[in-house]
Specification:
The structure is a homodimer. The mean pLDDT of chain A is 97. Helix content of chain A is 27%, strand content 25%. Chain A is an alpha/beta fold. Chain A contains eight helices and ten strands. The radius of gyration of chain A is 20 Å and the shape is globular. In chain A, strand 8 (214-220), helix 6 (233-236) and strand 9 (240-245) form a beta-alpha-beta unit. In chain A, the strands form two sheets. The first copy, chain A, has an eight-stranded mixed sheet with strand order 1-4-6-5-7-8-9-10, with helices on both faces. Chain A has one domain (5-311): 3-Layer(aba) Sandwich (Rossmann fold), CATH 3.40.50.1820. Chain A has helices at 88-94, 128-134, 159-164, 174-188, 198-209, 233-236, 253-271, 299-311; strands spanning 3-20, 26-31, 34-38, 42-56, 65-68, 99-103, 191-196, 214-220, 240-245, 275-280. At the A-B interface, strand 1, strand 2, strand 3, strand 4 and helix 2 of A face strand 1, strand 2, strand 3, strand 4 and helix 2 of B. Strand 1 (3-20) of chain A pairs antiparallel with strand 1 of chain B, so a sheet runs across the interface.
């Protein structure tokens, strides 16, 4: 897919200075020819967020998109599918959207503090088995035999490529990730948030805190929602809220609960004057959609359909 | 700077499966609406490397470039300068080079293992003070007063933007980073390695291990070198080896030693039939060049000069 860009680059936003004191200096051989006394004390930037941006030559008259990845992943998830096809990022650019891709605080090129006192707890990782049922490729009981759900569309022949893109996550950092996202929104200006999975929690909190910087909201199976009492005409009216949900939502109690929470949120948004819709992908012609719908075999079709929803009010 | 790309995307390469066993399952509230029993046991991919690629529409008949960042940084260092100008990546694309940017194993979007037994030791970070003299912006004694070296070209008004791009590094992972880089070279095919700082150590080792996949080598103040006994006609003859070195190399014993090692390496490469040059930036019209010459105020001019060196054999 050809890309013609008027601008491309990156920046870091947010964060704060963190002082470290009282640690011993130690000698480190960085390379055989570069040994240094390393002083672990001093001032460090922590809790910043990395944003990579792409501005199409033929830019649409529309708010920019800001893509917010989910837990255990980075902004790389939007670029290329595990089977090597162009990711949703390409479709958004092809449609003329200035598109910003964040690595949430702690993730990917945002980095993390080496001082373990900055955040509570240690990071965790997602195993091949945990992802299997969580992402609704198959039942947990069918993992060993790799029997997928009938009709599911994730390209399982390339499951290893998905697993290689997993990175660690802390479980205590949502608030600093919200702050990082808000710093990105302040830099970019009013934009449409496109939030996947845990990114839906981060994005919802940012959207409630700074409704002035949110032109629209796309939840791609977001797993977090604005609290009921935060949904007011002031925070949600007069802009689109699209909640995309895939297939097999009865697979686990987690997904059953998320479907209920998503439908309730859409009702609350509509009641408060938001232009909100629950978009059931199977009903819209995409049966077999998994939690990783931006990587499913029909991700191109889903992207084109989503773009049409975004550009046709 | 306009970019017209025939291709853009990313992939992960290398790595291995790592099994974790015997850890207790624990309940985690990922979001207020998504609580899960998280099993930390299972199979995880570790030591993979992330590569982002850009293929110009008007591609030059030349080997692709593979940009290898230095310690404590990620591939983001090539994209945009701290003062917001286009980074060297743009210049390479503008000159028609297919360009691949790696996040070395452990860094950025490559991720790291949460199991602390996989790598020795804990990661370290670079303070604002350590970078100040290490990157030759100023003398350590002048850090508090922020008195730079006379004539140095780093945009110090944007020092904070550089600090925000720092990420942790382990000090025990060079060999797995070499393996990750070789996996990238195997995927890309013969290419010219452009290696900054610690990337020079990683790149040198990869180049000696797989000379068949190296079409050329650019050391941008690389801090590691091929061992003398690895430099043979088989590993180095018939291809360019450019060693860029900036100003103020007498500032510290580290840089004094690196200048000597660089000059000795160039002599050995020439003796073995390599087309090797020590390129003293002040001599070539760029006085004041720091260790971060790809971010210096005259980084555009240095990039254009480097591109001319690359395309004029």
């Amino acid at each position: 897919m050809t890309l013609r860009l008027a601008g491309f680059g990156s920046f870091h936003v947010g964060g704060r200075v963190h002082d470290v004191r009282g640690e011993p200096v130690r000698r480190i051989n960085f390379t055989p020819t570069a040994a240094l006394d390393h002083d672990p004390n001093g001032r460090f930037t922590v809790e910043q967020a990395y944003v990579q941006y792409f501005i199409p030559e033929q830019q649409r008259e529309a708010p920019p998109l800001l893509l917010v990845h989910g837990g255990g992943l980075t902004g790389a998830m939007w670029e290329t599918t595990p089977d090597g096809r162009p990711g949703w990022l390409h479709h958004f650019l092809d449609a003329g959207f200035a598109t910003y891709v964040i690595d949430n605080v702690e993730r990917g090129r945002s980095g993390f503090p080496v001082d373990e006192t900055v955040w509570d707890g240690k990071p965790i990782a997602r195993s091949d088995r945990e992802a299997w049922s969580l992402f609704r490729f198959g039942r947990d009981a069918d993992f060993e035999a790799r029997i997928p759900l009938p009709g599911q569309r994730f390209p399982l022949a390339h499951y290893d490529a998905l697993l290689a893109s997993f990175v660690p996550r802390w479980t205590s950092t949502t608030q600093v990730q919200v702050a990082g996202l808000i710093a990105a929104m302040e830099r970019i200006g009013p934009c449409t948030l496109v939030c996947h999975s845990h990114g839906g929690d981060i994005g919802s909190r940012a959207a409630m805190a700074r409704p002035d910087l949110v032109a629209g909201f796309v939840s791609v199976e977001g797993t977090g929602f604005p609290p009921a009492d935060a949904i007011t005409p002031e925070t949600v009216a007069g802009k689109p809220w699209l909640y995309l949900m895939g297939d097999y939502l009865d697979l686990t109690p987690l997904w059953q609960g998320l479907e209920v929470a998503t439908r309730e949120t859409v009702e609350r948004l509509v009641a408060a004057g938001g232009s909100a819709e629950y978009l059931d992908l199977p009903e819209h012609g995409f049966p077999g959609s998994t939690h990783m719908m931006m990587m499913d075999e029909n991700s191109d079709e889903i992207a084109r359909w989503l773009v049409r929803r975004l550009v046709t009010p």
